Amino acid sequence: MIKGLAITPPVIGRISIGKLVQRHDKLLPEKDDSFTLTTQVQNRDGWLLHPLHQPLAEQANNGKIRAIPVRLPFNNSELNLRAEYSAFDRASGRPLCVGNGETARRVTPDGLEEATCAGPDRCPFARDAGCKLYGRLNVQVDGQQDELGTFIFRTTGYNSVRTLAARLHYFEAVSGGLTRYLPLTLRLRAKSTAQSYRTPVYYVDLTLREGQSLIEAVTQAHAEAEQAESAGVDTAQMEAMAKRLLQNGQFEETEEDVPQLLEEFYPETTPEGELQAPATPIRPARLTRQLGKVNGTELVR
Question: Which Pfam families match (predicted)?
Answer without folding.
Answer: Gp3-like (PF18897)
